[in-house]
From TrEMBL:
Gene3D superfamilies: 2.40.30.130, 3.10.310.40, 3.30.54.20, Bira Bifunctional Protein, Domain 2, Threonyl-trna Synthetase, Chain A, domain 2
SUPFAM superfamilies assigned to the protein according to its UniProt record, in alphabetical order: Class II aaRS and biotin synthetases, Putative anticodon-binding domain of alanyl-tRNA synthetase (AlaRS), ThrRS/AlaRS common domain, Translation proteins
Binding-site residues for Zn(2+), renumbered to this chain: 585, 589, 689, 693
HAMAP family linked: Ala_tRNA_synth_A (MF_00036_A)
Cofactor binding: number and manner: Binds 1 zinc ion per subunit.
Gene Ontology MF annotations: alanine-tRNA ligase activity; aminoacyl-tRNA deacylase activity; ATP binding; tRNA binding; zinc ion binding
Family: Belongs to the class-II aminoacyl-tRNA synthetase family.
Descriptive protein name: Alanine--tRNA ligase
Record EC number: 6.1.1.7
Lineage of origin: Archaea, Nitrososphaerota, Marine Group I
Listed Pfam families: DHHA1 (PF02272), tRNA-synt_2c (PF01411), tRNA_SAD (PF07973)
Gene field: alaS
Length: 898
């Protein structure tokens, strides 16, 4: 269905779709814009244009239409007190990480808080009716506008006003009356300034009319009436009609403050402080002029660089004014906005990474750093985080708890970026033409090079407006639902004995048997689910090899045949297997909490797998685990085991469970049922879980982490064992340790032995050296060392190939010998494995003519190998052991020239 078609249909019958009681009572007039023909409602008889096309558009900048000024914090207090005064419950914001929907990474609107997906249907669950909520929403598709347009944020507070029309709630008349009074009575805007524009909404098979409300060209909110289902030719009223009014809190503040941009009044003193640090006067008239032009041009041009170009022209700004004032101001706005978003996202458990929703966070952090570098701003990110949380905690006190964690994560991520810069520089230097949008995406996806970095390096002058939206699309959640292969139509829900008495032996009736599958009327066989592997055992005489859940029906897969339909059979669950799996499952919960306690609040279960004799838990964490961290996690987990805490299981209504325990219960992912099974280990760990668990943690006996590994950016895998398997593992490990220590002892002894030998030799060296150098002219032998002493002024020669001497001897002894006798040439030959080696020394005098390096070369040639060195010391060798004597003779003749 096309929105335009719905709008044109609804516009033909304004009485039915748009006219509310307020318009009647206050004599609002319905008009059509002379420029764009859109229909709107106003009390101003002189108005001829819709808010987008009026002369007074954005005239509130520098001239706010209210007597009082309200910043972000104060604006929410006004909104909240107004709605509470008018019968609404004020609900705390929901997390910005949307863990209750598998098609969204982040919460993008206040209505998302109350949507739960069951199969293909979206159902609404409101904790109160009517209600108001200050919902922080994250949206990344307009990222290139942030800082530049004055009104786009990567995260903003959506004031959610929601009502279901019944005895508690209300419908269109009261909704519009409240919104009108909020703006006029509570905020003090003149009645004539409020304009309601007709629009429509459609999505998820339903649709309805909506009224957007504007003051001075600024859209403050949009009241959507979810009313119909079907298509335009045939539609009916929904059973559950819903008021979904979303308004921008930032815009309420901006309107009353009249600052040049919305960033100036919504981030408390932070923006002002940063402007001051950068030496910019926030009261400069130029800012008001420029940003008013920007706001107006935004309605006229679709391309952001056109908007900017025209604003510069019509505000008459010089290049110098742009470079010295506007560009740094834009950068500071961007930094303030992006850090605010990171604070919310990290506090709610998201981590910057290169996958899923984490990619947006990494991108933003890199934009912050690039912007600081480009503008040479020396800002302290920790200080900005502190200042923002100090301000935001007025509205969101929960942010105080994660203050340090946010700083830790930002610090780690910034370090990573700095480290990758050198690599990026190289990649960028190789670019030989201006990159296209697809090039930019490839550069970011494969090399982590952000377009902001390219801008900083002056490779591109602007970031193409399609870049962020294209990239966002690439990272949309694309979870595929498993398809049911089996036809189970007409079968009743299987009675689940494992949630009751959980008998390991029971009789059951075969309701259906086909191929290798069997469906029973009741079962104690746990079906694969939530990372827990299925039970095994027997049904009749057949072995159960797999169990799966299809809707509310359990299907058992058997081996070697199936029993007959209609029969009653006796069934036995393999309790040893179940026992192992169960211990591992409860251990997963314990390790998950232990990891969060040791590492930080950002740790969530990413996924888990529980088999009989091994299990793994994947957690969200920024780095690989250190040995110290692993030890601490294991220690904490085992102290939870030792405390023998009871594991209790209770069923709650989903809404009640969420309110009572928060969204941390969704560690195992979303739970698509209205009644939630909460598994709690006192207050150590509380999770929504459908698995089997021990009754007391002591039953687990021991948890042993066997291995950890960083399996993807932002995810660490912990492999572990528990129960008897863990005890066996530790014993085995101890045995291995003993073996290893025996080997180590042997090695040490050997080393000591060699050490002793060396010591002996050292003591022997002076005596040997002394007796050799004292030898008479001619040939003599000392301790298997042959010595040839010549007349003075000629080289002497000394050699040995005795088996009792090894490398250490030759190297140490040769050295000492030539020190004592500078006319000496020493040659030691010894076997080393399958090789024969030679060590040559030549004393200072002898080396003038008989260089060690040359001698080694010749000896090696004889031995069938190669060698070399300097004139004093050289070595070589070869493989031909039979040439040992030839080699020695060769050296001797070379040295003595005989
Ligand atoms: Zn218009
Ligand atoms: Zn679980």
């Amino acid at each position: 269905m096309d929105k335009k078609e719905i709008l044109s249909k609804f516009s033909t019958d304004p009485e039915r779709y748009y006219k509310v009681k307020l318009f009647e009572d206050e004599r609002f007039e319905r008009k059509s814009c002379v420029t764009c023909k859109r229909f709107y409602w106003t009390m101003d008889e002189n108005r001829v244009n819709c808010p987008d096309h009026s002369d007074d558009t954005y005239s509130f900048i520098g001239n706010p239409p209210t007597a009082k000024r309200f910043d972000y914090t104060q604006a929410w207090k006004e909104v909240e007190s107004f709605f509470v005064k008018n019968g609404h419950t004020s609900v705390n914001r929901y997390p910005v990480v949307c863990r209750w929907r598998d098609d969204l990474y982040f919460t993008i609107a206040s209505i998302v808080d109350f949507q739960r997906v069951m199969g293909s249907k979206v159902v609404f669950e409101f904790p109160a009716n009517p209600l108001v909520v200050p919902q922080t929403c994250l949206r990344f598709k307009d990222l290139e506008n942030v800082g530049i347009t004055g009104r786009h944020f990567s995260s903003f507070c959506m004031i959610g006003q929601h009502s279901i029309p019944n005895s508690h709630g209300y419908w269109k008349d009261e909704c519009i009356d409240l919104d009108y009074r909020l703006v006029t009575e509570q905020f003090g805007v003149d009645k004539k300034e409020v304009v309601f524009v007709e629009d429509v909404w459609e999505g998820g098979g339903s649709f309805g009319s909506s009224l957007e409300f504007f003051v001075k060209g600024l859209e403050l909110g949009n009241a959507v009436f979810t009313e119909f289902q079907g298509d335009l030719s045939n539609y009916k009223t929904l059973d559950q009609q819903i008021i979904d009014m979303g308004a921008g809190l930032e815009r309420f503040a901006w309107l009353t403050m009249g600052t040049p941009t919305a960033y100036d009044c919504c981030c408390g003193p932070i923006t002002n402080n940063l402007l001051q640090q950068a030496g910019i006067d926030k009261n400069d008239e130029l800012l008001v002029t420029y940003f008013t032009k920007i706001a107006k041009h935004l309605e006229q041009f679709s391309d952001l660089s056109e908007v900017r170009k025209n604003a510069i022209k019509s505000a008459g700004l010089s290049d110098e004014q742009m470079n010295k004032i506007i560009i740094p101001v834009e950068g500071i706005y961007l930094i303030v906005d992006h850090i605010r978003t990171l604070i919310f996202a990290i506090s709610d458990g998201a981590l910057p990474s290169n996958v899923g929703g984490g990619y947006n966070l990494r991108m933003m952090l890199r934009r912050i750093i690039s912007t600081m570098d480009r503008l040479s701003l020396k800002l302290d990110m920790n200080e900005i985080v502190d200042a923002q949380i100090d301000y935001l905690k007025n509205t969101y006190p929960e942010l105080e708890k994660t203050r340090e964690d946010v700083k830790t994560i930002i610090g780690i991520e910034s370090g990573r970026y700095e480290n990758s810069k050198l690599r990026m520089e190289k990649i960028v230097s190789k670019l030989n033409q201006k990159p296209t949008v697809d090039d930019l995406i490839r550069l970011y996806e494969s090399d982590g090079v952000t377009p902001d970095y390219l801008k900083e390096m002056k490779v591109i002058s602007d970031i193409p407006s399609t870049f962020y939206s294209k990239l966002s699309q690439l990272h949309q959640s694309k979870k595929q639902k498993e398809q049911d292969q089996v036809s189970l139509e007409g079968l009743p829900e299987t009675e689940l004995l494992y949630y009751g008495d959980d008998p390991k032996e029971f009789d059951a009736k075969i309701l259906k048997s086909f191929d290798k599958y069997v469906v029973l009327d009741k079962t104690s066989f746990y079906a694969r689910g939530g990372g827990q592997e299925p039970d095994h055992g027997t049904i009749g005489k057949f072995e159960v090899v797999d169990v799966s859940k299809h809707g509310n029906i359990i299907v058992h897969e058997l081996k070697n045949g199936i029993p007959k339909e209609g029969n009653t059979v006796s069934c036995v669950v393999n309790s040893k297997r179940r026992d192992g799996i169960t211990k591992n499952h409860t251990s997963t919960h314990i390790l998950n909490s232990s990891s969060r306690n040791v590492l930080g609040s950002w740790v969530w279960q990413h996924s888990a797998f529980k088999e009989e004799d091994h299990a793994r838990l994947d957690i969200t964490h920024h780095s690989a685990l250190t040995d110290d961290e692993i030890t601490k996690i294991e220690k904490l987990a085992n102290s939870a085991v030792e405390k023998n805490m009871p594991v209790t299981i209770e069923n709650f209504d989903r809404g009640t469970a969420e309110q009572k325990y928060g969204f941390k219960i969704y560690q195992g992912g979303i739970v698509p049922v209205k009644s939630i099974r909460i598994v709690s280990i006192e207050d150590f760990d509380i999770e929504a879980c459908g698995g089997t668990h021990v009754k007391k943690t002591g039953e687990i006996e021991l948890i042993k982490i066997t291995r950890t590994k960083r399996i993807q950016d932002g995810v660490v895998r912990i492999e572990f064992v528990s129960g008897g398997t863990a005890i066996d593992y530790v014993k085995q490990h101890d045995d291995d340790l003993i073996k290893k220590s025996v080997e180590l002892k042997d090695k040490t002894e050997l080393k000591e032995k060699r050490q002793e030998q060396k010591q002996e030799l050292r003591e022997k060296f002076p005596i040997l050296v002394e007796s050799i150098t004292q030898s008479k002219i001619g040939t003599s032998i000392v301790d298997e060392i042959i010595v040839d002493i010549t007349e003075s002024g000629k080289p002497n020669f000394c050699c040995t190939m005795s088996d009792q001497y090894g490398e250490f001897f030759h190297i140490s002894f040769g050295e000492k010998l030539i020190e004592k006798d500078p006319w000496m040439v020493y040659c030691g030959v010894f076997e080393d494995g399958d090789k024969i080696r030679a060590i040559i020394y030549s004393g200072d005098q002898a080396a003038k003519d008989k260089k060690a390096g040359y001698i080694a070369k010749i000896v090696s040639e004889v031995l069938g190998g190669a060698g070399g060195g300097n004139q004093r010391f050289a070595q070589g060798g070869g493989k031909d052991k039979s040439k040992k004597n030839d080699a020695i003779e060769k050296v001797k003749s070379m040295v003595l020239e005989v």
